Amino acid sequence: MVNTDRPAGEWIGHPLGRRSVAWTERDAILYALAVGARADELDLVFEARLRPLPTFALTLAQWAPDALGALRAFEPGLALHGAQRLEVLEPLPARGELTMTAEVEAVWDKGSAAVFDVRVESRCFMARWSIFAPGRGDFGGDRGPAASPTAAEGDELTVALATFPEQAALYRLCGDRHAIHIDPAAARAIGQPRPILHGLCTLATSALGLARALGAHPADLRKLKGRFTAPVLPGDTLELRAKTSGTAADFTVAKEGHTVIAAGHALYGD
Ligand SMILES: C/C=C/C(=O)SCCNC(=O)CCNC(=O)[C@H](O)C(C)(C)COP(=O)(O)OP(=O)(O)OC[C@H]1O[C@@H](n2cnc3c(N)ncnc32)[C@H](O)[C@@H]1OP(=O)(O)O
């Protein structure tokens, strides 16, 4: 049951604590395979050369939005991942341990829903989850900034992105075990025909495909953001359209002509 004694707006500024999470090469390689790395991308899948994908950090930080759900700020079984931002400060080592702190940065009142922004900080990255929580709006709060425009006209790059049927079953082993990604009954409860792909898996698959198309190293990702506008099912074929400038790109991702990621942006450096 949701913590109805506490209106959604009262979670603003709520500290979610500090946590240290450790990982090994095996975790980083499993993650890379789950987001579509190929066996010949040795920097991503071979421990002797390993450069963890920066988006792997988001699995290390998944405890933070989960902690807010565990506090019943919203109903975890109904909430959807609405949007994500990642800023890389330092590369992740192939194995290590990272201490992170997290708080509820903002809560937006969307009427029928609330959007909870959870911010996670560490020496290697800053990340922000926006969790769309149906039934938690109408608390008299601010609606928040309007959605940023999607990629400008004049697409320069189109990339086909293949997802695969077992992808959500594999990705969940990397740290996000919400039932909607594996249990048909849980997926039906949110109106989906079968378990859906994790938004972060779709976003990371997009960042990997985009890096390949730009000729950038995927481990050189510096910034990434995107807004999840419709669910993706494992096995869907997606199309990424980007307007690029050097190693920066504004992008959208679509499934059969319907946008599934809007307002995407990625920047790769070295
Ligand atoms: C634990 C889960 C983990 C996961 O990985 S879940 C899988 C990944 N996520 C998804 O598949 C979600 C896909 N997105 C959707 O299905 C829909 O998209 C939503 C259900 C999230 C929202 O759709 P709708 O209910 O039709 O809302 P609206 O009428 O489009 O917008 C109502 C207000 O909510 C804001 N909003 C809509 N989508 C998002 C979003 N994705 N992130 C943040 N805010 C959002 C809008 O802007 C607007 O507010 P304004 O009127 O003030 O503009």
Keywords:
270 residues; alpha+beta; Thiol Ester Dehydrase, Chain A; 10-stranded antiparallel beta sheet; 7 helices
Give a structural overview.
Belongs to the enoyl-CoA hydratase/isomerase family. One of its GO terms (biological process) is fatty acid beta-oxidation. Residues 160-253 form the MaoC-like domain. This is Enoyl-CoA hydratase. GO terms for molecular function: (3S)-3-hydroxyacyl-CoA dehydrogenase (NAD+) activity; 17-beta-hydroxysteroid dehydrogenase (NAD+) activity; enoyl-CoA hydratase activity. The chain has 270 residues and is an alpha+beta fold. It has two domains: 8-134, Thiol Ester Dehydrase, Chain A (Roll), CATH 3.10.129.10; 155-268, Hotdog Thioesterase (Thiol Ester Dehydrase, Chain A, Roll), CATH 3.10.129.10. It is built from seven helices and ten strands. It has helices at residues 25-34, 42-45, 57-60, 63-70, 167-171, 184-189, 199-214; strands at residues 15-23, 80-88, 96-109, 113-121, 125-134, 157-162, 221-228, 237-245, 248-255, 258-268. A ten-stranded antiparallel β-sheet has the order 1-3-4-5-2-7-10-9-8-6. A hairpin with a 3-residue loop joins strand 4 and strand 5 (125-134). The protein is globular. The mean pLDDT is 95. Bound molecules: ligand A1D88. Ligand A1D88 is lined by residues 79-83, 110, 115, 130, 132, 143, 146-147, 178, 196, 198-199, 227-231. Ligand A1D88 binds next to strand 2, strand 5 and strand 7.
